[in-house]
């Protein structure tokens, strides 16, 4: 407060580049601002947690571990497709949900379609394979 004008807030120079001013705020106002900032931060963290766990529920998975397992199965199947020269890895889409691998896309022959299914079935962690590949010469 200023002695000449008791209703006026005193302005002190701030630490930012020596030119900005820092206003003295009453302690009660500072505490309220901090209280609301903490509440807002907590709400953001809680919301992010709900949204991130909601995604796994939407996909039908119960845990984050199931999602990680499915992602590793998908990666392993795709890697095996790349290693095998009889299968066109770029034309086949691989999706995994709870250990069930779904193959979609196009194969050049019935032999390629069958080979893709064999590769997927022989991958660790795969419970079932749904072969939805269309043969297109």
**Sheet with most strands: strand arrangement:** 3-4-5
Radius of gyration: 30 Å
Structural class: alpha+beta
Estimate the strand proportion. 15-25%
Shape: rod-shaped
Give the biggest sheet: 3 strands, mixed
Mean pLDDT: 79
What's the count of strands?
5
Low-confidence stretches: none
Give the proportion of residues in helices. 40-55%
By DSSP (H or I, 4+ residues per run), the number of helices equals: 3
Order of helices and strands: EEHHEEHE
Distance between the termini: 86 Å
3D architecture notes:
By secondary structure, this protein is of the alpha+beta class. Helices cover 47% and strands 20% of the residues. The protein has helices spanning 27-58, 64-83, 110-121, and strands at 11-13, 21-23, 92-97, 100-107, 128-135. The longest helix is centred in the N-terminal third of the chain and has 32 residues, at 27-58. The chain starts with 10 loop residues before the first strand and ends with a strand.
Brief overview:
With 137 residues, this protein is of the alpha+beta class.
Q: How do the helices and strands line up, and which of them pair or pack?
A:
Blueprint: E1 11-13, E2 21-23, H1 27-58, H2 64-83, E3 92-97, E4 100-107, H3 110-121, E5 128-135
Parallel strand pairs: 4-5
Antiparallel strand pairs: 1-2, 3-4
